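Hi there. Long-time user, first ticket. I'm pasting a complex I've been working with (about 581 residues overall). I'd like to know whether the download I got is complete or cut off, because the file seemed smaller than I expected. Thanks.
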Amino acid sequence: MSGVTLVNLWMKNGAEIQRKTVDTKPFITNPRAVEKCARYVDTDLNRAFTPENLSASGGKELPYEVQRAQEINRLFGPKGSPEAYDVIFDLHNTTSNMGCTLILENSKDHFNLQMMNYIKRAIAPASCLVLLNEHPLLKYSTSRSVAKHPVGLEVGPQPQGVLRSNIFEAMRVILKHALDFIALFNEGMEFPSCTVEVFRVSESVDYPRDANGNIIAMVHPNLQDCDWEPLNPGDPMFQTFDGKTIPYQGTGTVYPTFINEAAYYEKQQAFVTTRRETLVASAIRKA
Amino acid sequence: MRTATGAEAGGDVSVRAVLANPRATRLGRRYLDTDLNRCFTHAALNGPLSDAPPYEMTRARELDALLGPKGSPRAVDLVCDLHNSTSNMGLCVIAFSDCDWICLHVFRYLQRQMPDIPVRYIHLDVPDEESFSLDSVGKHGFALEIGPQPHGVVRSDIYTAMKDGLQHTLDWVRLFNSGAVFEGGPVDLFTAVGHVDYPREADTQNIMAAIHPKLQDQDFCLLRPEEPMFQTFSGQTLRYKGSEPLYPFFINECAYYEKGVALYLARKRSVTLPTLRVHKKGHPANFVSVQEEE
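Hi, the file is complete. Here it is re-exported in full:
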């Protein structure tokens, strides 16, 4: 609810998100889903921006979110073209204990890397981690991918349908720093080369399921809420409903995240594993 | 859920597991048309139905036929309704009565058997005729409410707490049926006295504040007059304006936004439980609770 609440606020009074040199537009991507207090109506909007969907014909016969994706692509894209918006911030909450997480889709997006570095420094000692999803199979076609520099902002833990003031404020502060960065960049500030620690998506792990697809185990209490902490081979991973432990059997230490996200049960994902990496961001300055 | 019938040495008990709202469960929602857990008043169960009644009104009547009828001698002895909450409530036994000694003794038994988790009794001070939830269909009944857990998520700690709570409840029933004596004594319970809605915009009814960070997750911690209650989106603190310190619960429960409830408030009270023992009359499954005079 944080993103929806913030955007509604800004649509009524956008002073907080205005910067002299930046043109900002608050926008609700899925108003019908918001009305139903659901993630989506027909199909997940945040997976809908595929080339097939964006070029599909059928008008009002198409699933609601496909129509919506085409509309968003018209308003803020077209995706991949020079007319597309420079940046889209996609505001999300998660039931996982991820804290503040910035999601990057391209390890060579130096503008985004510099922005994320700026945000991390601005909110220190509070933490904001960077999740990089460049995985050829696990990467997905997000709403934000319409823009040249897509930025996902994921803040949790927060239950669906609930507004927690600490989560709300955290999202608000990160947006403030992000917009400050863009304003500074537009005013000609140079940002020297820097390094950014990221967590690169490695593997998606599903719940153990029976022959009918029903889950037969839960995230183990030792793993629950331990997003970003090392998970070593042999560590408890799942607990069956009658109390048996199923250990992690990967080959090395990984850093799990999106642990027990409500929206991902249907996507067959209990958590993703990531590996730590340091990326180098080139110096940038507005041309 | 598996259906289980258990007959153990020393106390027969017949247990029936029922999924109250299977269609809503399949969709991952609380309800389809209307909140099932408000459909069990006498009026809702027995009044006329429209031509196309909400799914849950029909379902409530099916459940009443299965487990009730409510108020009749054929109703099941005990209904235990399993709920989760997004609020930080620990384990709560929620009932309409503050003098149903079965429910209260079960509650005290749970407190003693589960020392690692906060266990509390919430008394909804609603007259019998107006009781509205599924647990009111049985001769005795309560909701077992456990949180915090987000909607649509299974947390192992919450699942285990619910499994244990249910197991201890069944153990109590078996002990009771086999003639165990449950000593009387004082227990604390929380009697609901009111609720507070979110501040809302007059025209749209959209909420304009969130539970204050100092109140968030502080279920059952005393809220005193003038203490912070909400924080508006412009950062202003709104304070509790009541004159009596009360105990908040169901703070920031997801399902209650639409019911105009940001939190409930309760008075803490002490009641004295009588000593309880089953009075067997032939068939082991029949019982009458007996209050022993000291």
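A couple of notes from our side: The interface with chain B takes residues 5, 8-9, 95, 157-166, 168, 215, 218-221, 224, 239, 241, 260, 262-263, 265 of chain A (CB under 8 Å). The mean pLDDT of chain A is 97.
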